[in-house]
Amino acid sequence: MSRSLVRLGIVLLPALGLAALAVAPIAHADPVVSGPSVTLEVDRVTPGEQVSMTIDGFTTGFVTISVCGNEARRGSADCNMVASEGLHLDRDGSSSLARMPIAAPPAPCPCIIRVSSRLNDEIAVAPIELIGHPVAPVVEQPARDGSLAVAIHVRAAPDGVVSWGRSSLGGPARYEVTVTVKNRTAVPIEHVKVVASAGRDAQDDLVHLQLDEPGKLGPGQTWQQVVTTEVPAPSFGDLVWRVDASGAGPSATAMTTTRHSPLLFMVVVALFVLDIGFLAIRFVIRRRIARGGTVDIAQISA
After folding, report:
1. pLDDT for res 292
2. Which of 67, 71, 230, 239 is buried deepest, with most CB atoms within 10 A?
3. Do 62 and 117 touch, CB atoms closer than 8 A?
4. Alpha helices (H) along 203-262
5. Strand positions, DSSP E, the chain
6. Which residues of 92-103 are buried (b: 16+ CB within 10 A; e: fewer)?
7. What is the pLDDT confidence band of residue 72, given thresholds at 50, 70 and 90?
């Protein structure tokens, strides 16, 4: 049995060693920007006129439509909430149509039509010019925490048998990482930047993810990018993945943890230890036979 194990090791170890050294290509996908939208039939009206609009991209079943001045930079305080209207959206994925009178907002223009969910976690806006309504410079509200929402999802992504073999031996391991950043406000956020890394703990930077910069992220828009990265050997134990998004107020942070167990490596080690044990038993048996003694297998095994 010992000889068969040795032969198995002689056959497997060179192949597994080559698998551990093999380098697989790293994938990099272009980012995708998505989110709810509202499109107006006309974008220049007199207060009191009716305007038709098309609403798309919401996952919620109910939205509130409001006319806002100051580009809604200060939230609902810039909007005519009394004259707002609710709308139940079609749930079959098709566009929803709405028509409502345009009431003058409490703040001067630039003006927008704002469509938002109950929790304001889904927002779409469209600019509109109100004839006769005063226009003034935009008054900014200080950026606050929660303007950006960020998430990170990680899964093991070996590229075929060779990639699986080297990671199972504790060699470099491939992961597919999905990073998502969402603008939770009703105003554009300029110069959004995303930095992501992985390490043995939250402070360790073992790997830096090669992500594009989102740049400008419109109201309610979501930016998402999927990249494949490689963690260098030895790849075992826990990995902490961290992403930070900045551009409006305090940075938004998200973390997740993955655990990797190199199963093939543990099997090879177990076979090696077992083989050493059998070799030790054979050595003891041969020495006692050479001395002319008797051998008690149970005693040797103990």
Report:
1. 65
2. 67
3. yes
4. none
5. 32-34, 37-40, 44-45, 50-56, 62-68, 85-88, 96-101, 111-117, 123-130, 148-156, 173-183, 189-199, 207-208, 215-217, 222-231, 237-246, 252-260
6. eeeebebebebb
7. very high
d(CA 251, CA 193): 10
Which residue ranges form the domains of the chain, and what is each CATH number?
22-30+156-260 (2.60.40.10), 36-130 (2.60.40.230)
User: Would you state the pLDDT for residue 21?
Assistant: 44
Contacts 24+ apart (CB under 8 A), 17-22: 17/169, 19/161, 19/162, 19/165, 19/166, 19/169, 19/171, 20/165, 20/166, 20/169, 20/170, 20/171, 20/172, 20/233, 21/166, 21/171, 22/162, 22/163, 22/166
For the chain, give the number of residues: 302
Mean of pLDDT over the chain: 81
List the one residue out of 226, 230, 235 whose CA is nearest residue 259. 235
HSE at residue 74, side-chain half, CA atoms within 13 A, is 16
Whether pLDDT at 144 is above 60:
yes
Rounded to two decimals, the pTM is: 0.71
